[in-house]
Design brief:
about 240 residues, alpha+beta, two-stranded antiparallel sheet, 6 helices, 10 strands
């Protein structure tokens, strides 16, 4: 049996076709409601978050976090507030502020985008983790909470991650979070007056149960010592679940 056999069948003519889904109905749009975890809370971005986000992003002194984003780095707090005000009105992308519960501060953003309820597909994008958020439990839990809403609450079939093929940190993050690499779309778009080949990654609904258990195991407080160091990596937790 090949890896694709479990997703196909044969029609009356003996041709391979996708499995029938007679009970499928379009999914609903993601709600503009908070998502709460042990270490963080995500809430639809609002102007009230702008000052905290700007301060957190100011620690990215050379602006490298903005290189692969579609937006240019705002040059001032006022410009950042204007950008956040615009994003707060959008339903696609639907941007969320990531609040570190320990500090009570907004330290990053991530969005649902390219939302396709008819086919049950949705992308996570516009991710900008400030230096305060990078390589923390908060960052990982934020991604977990967004996945949990997509699969458990909304019943989507496919969760996508796309990035510039040259964005090595983003590609590594996608793999760490359990996304599978699907390929490169060559010369896919032009942004910031430069060409982009786009790397595609996905998690599908059948991947989710094992990934969910792995995230829960990694995020468990017992997985961290008194210094906050992980006892098992997320990759080890995924391997234990056969991922």
């Amino acid at each position: 049996m090949t890896s694709s056999d479990k997703y196909t069948t044969n029609n009356a003519l003996g041709q391979p076709v996708g499995l029938a889904m007679p009970d499928w109905t379009p999914r609903t749009l993601p709600p503009s409601l908070p998502m709460a975890g042990r270490y963080c809370r995500l809430e639809p971005v609002a102007l009230a978050h702008a000052e905290q986000l700007y301060a957190a992003n100011s620690e990215d002194v050379d602006g490298r976090n903005w290189t692969y984003l579609f937006a240019e780095r705002p040059a001032s707090l006022a410009a950042y507030q204007d950008w956040i005000a615009t994003m707060s009105l959008s339903k696609d992308p639907l941007m969320h502020a990531i609040i570190d519960l320990a500090s009570g501060q907004a330290v990053g953003v991530a969005s649902y985008m390219r939302i396709d309820p008819a086919h049950g597909a949705i992308e996570v994008g516009n991710i900008n983790f400030s230096p305060r958020l990078q390589r923390t439990r908060v960052a990982t839990e934020a991604m977990f909470l967004m996945m949990r809403r997509v699969f458990d609450e909304l019943g989507y079939r496919r969760y996508e991650w796309k990035c510039d093929s040259l964005n090595a940190p983003s590609r590594a993050a996608a793999l760490r979070y359990g996304f599978q690499f699907e390929g490169i779309f060559r010369r896919a778009i032009v942004y910031k007056k430069r060409s982009r080949d786009t790397a595609w990654f996905s998690i599908i609904d059948t991947d989710w149960p094992a990934l969910k258990l792995a995230f829960q195991a990694w995020l468990d407080p017992a997985n961290f010592d008194n210094a906050g160091q992980q006892r098992r990596s997320l990759g080890d937790c995924m391997a234990q679940q056969g991922r």
